[in-house]
């Protein structure tokens, strides 16, 4: 199995986030970078392509594109979805093998089947990542977050150091250690990982680790049968067992999943 940490690497590095085609009808496009699951961006209703994308000043190789609240993109007329890449010359094109001809509930994943994960490891251009949506009618596209991530995983599988705990209503608002922004959360759990010193260095280098939410993607469904969790990290306890044997216990909270 492979449990991958998917922070918004490209959102952290991007020089800009803007519309490739189409326009914004409502919401702030910058809310796609981070934040809670209830800050929506909405494109202008169109029968042509609507496509927001991150641009980068230098190449960055991402492996996954995650769209939160992609259930809002499952439309009456039907929508075609594909991941996009940008060349060093500034041209945008579809990433081969990523087209979903008609987005349906069966394509979605996560605790409430609200999110979409697209493997973008087939990209050949690395100066930008985005998503393009085409409706079979004149319809608007709405979602809440767009992460492009290289991903990180520990070599050893995790153990549940603490199973799921319902967070009392009075304690649901949580502020990550390095930000003043609060997120509404609904569950707490702890995962423990055996790790090497190098793995711990890589983990601690993940962008905005104690500021922004990130996704946990269980590609095989061994830890989470629903495969995807959207979480914030409370903190971790690292124990050095011997020179290159560590154990880290990470405390996480699931972001509130709104209807």
How is this structure best described in words?
The chain is mainly beta. It folds into two domains: 3-149, Galactose-binding domain-like (Jelly Rolls), CATH 2.60.120.260; 159-255, no CATH class. The chain is 5% helix and 42% strand. The protein has helices at 9-13, 197-204, and strands at 3-6, 16-21, 24-26, 41-43, 51-55, 64-68, 79-86, 92-94, 116-119, 128-135, 142-143, 145-149, 159-166, 173-174, 183-195, 214-218, 228-242, 245-255. The strands form four sheets. Strands 1, 13, 14, 15, 16, 17 and 18 form a seven-stranded antiparallel β-sheet that branches. β14 (173-174) and β15 (183-195) form a beta hairpin. The model has no long low-confidence stretch (mean pLDDT 96).
Task: Provide a compact summary of the structure.
It contains two helices and 18 strands.
Order of helices and strands: EHEEEEEEEEEEEEEEHEEE
CATH topology-level fold name of the largest domain: Jelly Rolls
Please tell me the CATH architecture of the largest domain by its name: Sandwich
Question: The biggest beta sheet, please?
Answer: 7 strands, antiparallel
**Average pLDDT rating:** 96
């Amino acid at each position: 199995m492979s449990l991958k940490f998917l922070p918004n690497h490209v959102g952290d590095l991007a020089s800009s986030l803007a519309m490739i085609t189409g326009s914004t009808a409502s919401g702030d496009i910058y809310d796609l970078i981070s934040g809670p699951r209830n800050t929506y961006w909405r494109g202008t209703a169109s029968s042509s392509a609507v496509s927001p994308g991150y641009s980068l000043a230098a190449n960055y190789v991402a492996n996954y594109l995650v769209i939160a609240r992609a259930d809002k993109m499952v439309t009456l007329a039907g929508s075609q979805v594909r991941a996009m890449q940008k060349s060093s010359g500034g041209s945008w094109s579809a990433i081969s093998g990523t087209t979903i001809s008609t987005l349906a509930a069966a394509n979605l994943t996560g605790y409430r089947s609200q999110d979409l994960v697209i493997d973008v490891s087939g990209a050949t251009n690395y100066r930008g990542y985005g998503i393009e949506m085409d409706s079979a009618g004149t319809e608007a596209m709405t979602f809440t977050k767009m992460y492009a991530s290289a991903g990180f995983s520990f070599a050893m599988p995790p153990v549940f150091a603490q199973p799921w705990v319902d967070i009392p209503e009075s304690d649901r608002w949580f502020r990550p250690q390095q930000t003043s922004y609060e997120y509404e959360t609904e569950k707490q759990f702890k995962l423990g990982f055996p790790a090497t010193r190098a793995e711990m260095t890589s983990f601690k280098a993940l962008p905005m680790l104690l500021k922004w939410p990130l996704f946990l993607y269980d590609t095989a469904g061994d830890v989470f049968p629903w495969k995807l969790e959207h979480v914030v990290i409370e903190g971790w306890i690292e124990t050095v067992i011997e020179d290159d044997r560590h154990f880290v216990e990470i405390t996480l909270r699931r972001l509130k999943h709104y209807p």
